[in-house]
Amino acid sequence: MNVRFTTAGDTAFNVEFGEGIDRPTNARVMALHARLKAAAPPGLVETVPTFRSLQVVYDPAATSRREVQAAVEAELAHAGEAPVEGTLWRLPVCYDPDLGPDLAELSASLGLTAEQLIALHGSTEYFVYMLGFMPGFAYMGDLPAELEKPRRSEPRVRVPAGSVATAGRLTTVYPWESPGGWHLIGRCPVPLYDGSRPSPVLLAAGDRVRFEAVDRTRFDALSAEAAAGRFDPDTLRATS
Fold first, then answer.
1. Is residue 113 part of a domain?
2. How far apart are the C-alpha atoms of 5 and 28, rounded to whole Å?
3. 124: DSSP letter
4. What's the structural domain count of the chain?
């Protein structure tokens, strides 16, 4: 296994497994993440998985880089590529044009109708590779090849919270209003970050997501429930 260690400041280092975005590389990342979480070497603060690397954060007052890296190398010897069994979620999404302002332009540029794009987007079970950019922002793949399109050439200053978007072979839901350059094709009424929940961030690396189309009436009803604090996110867990 070709693994590279790189420094990330005086309290962290990265364990790099490859260069691209693919499931086998990410499986190695998640396997080591799981082993270190279970082993909990002295002085380890946390591990942060990404597409192709794992960041290891440690407390220099309690341990040293040498000791932590030795513990990581020991776990690497036993870390395979076991698939991660994360939670499967069913996320509602409304594809009305006013909620997905890039839907028409994106579908035309791909040689598809809006209906074909929506059907393709909902046809796949997505894998949460990692979280980043902002709390609750999940990088999910892999988008069907027919929907692959680079980011917008002109990012927006404000993307509404809940916007469902695509870029490259990835899709996401913006948990907050923020700048953004992905293509907006719909909106999810369920907050992916809620500070009042015991676990504020809904999705975790290794989870899986299915998008289910809902009409405007259902979208408005779910939005109202979420705004009033009456929506239970556990109802989004899928059994298979």
1. yes
2. 14
3. S
4. 2
| pTM as predicted | 0.88
Is 82 part of a structural domain of the chain? no
pLDDT digits (tens, 9 = 90+) for 148-207: 999 999 999 999 999 999 999 999 999 999 999 999 999 999 999 988 888 899 999 999
DSSP for residue 50: -
| Residues whose CB is less than 8 angstroms from the CB of residue 214 and which lie 6 or more positions away in sequence, other chains included | 92, 93, 94, 189, 222
Strands 163-167 and 170-173, by their bridges, are: antiparallel
Residue-by-residue DSSP string for 135-160: TT-EEEE---GGG-BPPPSS-EEEE-
Alpha helices in the chain (DSSP H): 23-39, 65-76, 103-109, 114-121, 216-227
Tokens read off for 161: 């919270």
